[in-house]
Model the fold of this input.
Amino acid sequence: MSIDNLKEALPEYAKDLKLNLGTLSRTTELTEQQLWGTFLAAAVATGNATVLAEISEEAADVLSGEAYNAALGAASIMGMNNIAYRAKSFLGAEYGEVRMGLRMNIIGNPGVEKVDFELWSLAVSTINGCHDCTAAHADVVRKAGLTKEQVWEAVKVAATVNGVAAALTAKSALS
Done:
């Protein structure tokens, strides 16, 4: 099992991450599709090849082909959007009205339920540190019926996956 491989690979100083990873992979707050799409999108957002390889293997066993691709799409489009929207914010109010001018068709037609794609986009936006995108996606999923506990569960998955990537990067660099 891939989550088990990640847990085994974590050094002793990352014991909390190991415990969190195990607990979150069994959560009942999210549907299986929401959970594993969040894991997969977050893994992409970390930029850590080991984390992505291990999580993608397990996610492929749970997600349909469409959901798998949509999670990858959420990570990819947020990789672009989070930079662009943060830059608009950094540049100030006069850039607020500037047309984005970037294609984002996948957001309108992700191939899965919109709420799931938005939840994955929220998780990635959290990792990427985009306040505006995180808040916007949270608003969309809450209006679609997800609870604040479900939103927070996705954030916890993103935070834990990001922490696992940091620990494994440190372990590799220091060994």
Summary: DSSP finds nine helices and no strands in the chain.
